[in-house]
Structures
1.
Amino acid sequence: MAVIQQNKLKVRPVMDYWELNQFVSSDTADVNVCSTNLRNWKKLGENFEIIDLKKAYLQIRVDEALWKYEVVEHEGQRYCLTRLGFGLNVAPRIITKILKKVLSLDKVVESGTDSFIDDIIVNNNIVSSCRVQELLKKYGLDYKLPEKLVGQRELGLRVYKQNNQVRRKRDNIPKVSEGKMARRQIFSWCGQLTGHFPIANWLRLSCSYLKRVSSSCGWDTLVNDRIVKLVSSLNERLTKEDAVYGSWNVKNTSEATVWCDASSLAVGIILEVAGEIVEDCSWLRKQDGAAHINLAELEAVIKGINLATKWGFECITIKRDSATVVGWLKSLIIGDKPIRVHGLGEPLVRRRLSLIEDLVKECGIQLKLFLVITAENKADALTRVPQNWLHSNHSAMTANLVPPDVKSFHNFHHFGVNRTLYLMKQTYPKKNVCRKDIESVVKSCERCLSVNPAPIRWEEGNLVVGKSWYRLGTA
């Protein structure tokens, strides 16, 4: 079928390879990762060009013995496809292998180039574009003319120059259908919004949360009105402020700053180099998780160090707003006083601290720590969604929680919130059980309120009696 590519308004012939792909084994251990290529390319500066292959897949000829697997029937006639099909699951890997093999035949070209599928980036400080073109032509690969990066679209990002700085932004904002939509459409739209972009700020967590609240529906089932309102709210904010932007070039230095934060909802980190944000990440925490917030704060530090090591930074400054975690880390790095941890979560805290210590020693990292206030923490926005999203989520889940009936279930045993939540999830694994519903039931249960210590304080009275042995007690 013919599909219109929205960002270029070109008609692309697309074939359904679903059945054939089931019989083709595609290993992905050594495939190119887009985010890794972006990190490498952003360190090259401005003196490089892009060479794109012309109709890359159609340049790859298929052996005649394999023609029978790509047969198209049109108007009673059968046609064998003699070129590599776009929808084949191994097609990107095949073109990547071929291109890398050709570039490796010249050692100078290999050292000054990098490729992602059919895009070749040429570092003009090492090799000229003419030499790369001659090599491609020698081995029968047709290509487009080299283009400077500025003003072009590369890996979904539009690169432009502003105030003598090379910056990047989203090439186009994906559109969302109005009215009712299925879960499959929501996941597809959210994937296009964040994708492989290194910076997405608040948008990344909003998309993850939107996918979480819609995950209870079937893939092709229409979602309810509440989720439609969330989609509309996100789309409205997106049209006003797109979070995908930033500087293209990354300063060649060994120092970086990592902003970390965690909340009951998510964990967020920001990597900053020379005052410019180069990458951010955020992850939703486990729903109704009972882990202490300090564990999430330590996990944010670990994720931040891992991100910085992917860029190759050795001197890392950690900035966060948790005095407890900063105190633990200072005791760990400086070693001037023992690390004091109390409570049932002590083994979990020490396990994460030992992991941080191993990362610092094995990777040769110089770690600096700073305590900042929450208002100045740049990663704080990556751990939050609009407050009305959370309220609407609770009210919707409360209305749909029949069966099971939380109050009737609680009356069987009168356990606390955590135990009741655990038992309900074991008893009704396919039902949505909300922690806030259980909390409201436990707080309003008269039998639970009579247990000592009670969650609420009764009015103070006087137990003095006039004579001995006339005091009345209840058990």
2.
Amino acid sequence: MANAAQNQHNLGENDERWRNVQSLRELFHGRFSEREAETIINHFHGNFQQAVNFGFEATQAEIEDVLGNGDGWQLVIYVRQHQVVQDLNRRYEITKEIRQFSCGLCNTMWWRKVPTRKMVSKCRTCKKRKKALPRDKEWGWARFNCVCGNEYHHFGAMDIRMLRGSNGVQLSGKSKSLCFRCNQYLVEPTEILPPRRRPRRSLPKGAHCTAYNCYKRYIPTVPEPIVPVCVHPRSLPITVLVAANSHTSTGSTVDTFMSQDDLITDINP
């Protein structure tokens, strides 16, 4: 029993050390080989922050003491002169963003936390890499701000060119929602909310939609405005409103090691 626990502990340590090695390589844009990065990490007994500080601040003598008298020092000088790495040096971190991805071929959408400098994620169905959707192409649970002063949340889309109106004409621009408070204005979404920023998804009592395709359409009374199209998932025949562009790797950087955290992708209310 004790041996099993010890083995599990060792596996955890090895996994953490591997992640630190890949993290150091990612921070320095793959300029360190895996062996060199591992040597630096091991030199500081697995302390990642000390290894990062070493990469940015160590003297030539210290570098050669750890990596040997080969190309280690010239490598570090080159890395430090790289403009992107200089920017990272100011922050000592790799920033991440929660971004939306989609695959038109597989009709799937997902959210993923990815490095800001490499916003790419792989479709789980076809395994093709996709670029993050631009903010003005996202859709999902959204924030709305009506001119009457009401702020509310509902499904919205920043680009509805894939959809058609009741007359069959292709639509454009953002989706619209009837304000739940005043019932007088059609409001466009202000932003699409990533899963971890979403408030509890519930609609006020009496909320209704006048769109021709709404799965629970409300017949409007004059002079209530008519919503051009409903983008609630239950009202749409497709999941993907905007297909993300495919990513072609240039091989210029090490594959992203960061955990691209899966986020809640459930689009049902």
3.
Amino acid sequence: VEIRTHSSLRPTTVFCMASSTAFLLLLVAALHVCCCRGQGGHAGTGVAAIYSLGDSITDTGNLVKEAPPGAFETIKHLPYGLTFGRPTGRCSDGLLMIDFLAQDMGLPFLNPYLAMNRSFDHGANFAVAGATAMDPADQFNGRFSMPFTANSLKLQLRWFKDFMKSTFNTDEEIRKRLQSSLVLVGEIGGNDYNFALFGNKNVSEVEKLIPAVVQTIIDATKEVLDMGASRVIVPGNFPIGCLPSYLTAMAEPETSAYDSAGCLKDLNLFAAKHNAQLQRAVAGLRASYPDAAIAYADYFNSFLSLLKGAPALGTFRRG
């Protein structure tokens, strides 16, 4: 497996994470098990469509569709899309987790919501690279300056609702469709922290944002469930202390700042705190919606498993 990293340290640049095939396949397996064997829900039944909200981990082309001419040119050129033979608008040289998930369920790749003249018979992708969970108008209550993005989870949820209302005639038809669909709410929230941390805020300051970010994700998930969704996946955050951008920008002189995998301990602890709060909130959702299968996707430990097992999976090349 060849893993390419394409990271910029400029806070006004979209945070894109390159993906390895092994990482994606492992997570798809985990997501499939969570979804199809979750509490409540409709275990073993087919999924007719996938609807996805999130950021660059899931965006299949919305950012480049809405961007003005000349913006985000990097994503529009190889090596992005290398395994497709052409750039696709994905922040990856190949398939994303959402692509593998669609394949695993026998569905076509999801078209981006902003694409024109495309089929949405099997779902739609509302994710936008660089998106935040919190809305720019509410972000951090003015404590932090916002980057360029206006593509918050709130906006994506509005797109989702508008799409469903324009595609189906009644609320009952929407509910029926969603009961045979899978909805991903995330991964989202990582950019809320990225923009703050790369804006020179320290970890203890940014940690205060976790409750609001988590609540925003949960509120959006509730709205999706209230519309009729019966199978929902809510992913957690990655171990950001292992990401090349953070390892470069926030390098520490003391070896004690790093764990055995070479990751920054404080940043991984921060991400783990976000995930712990999100997991508790997802557990609360399961109690409130006993007839739905609601899964928390553990990106944190899946990433670490692959990082620590990397020698058995292939070679790394930084590019």
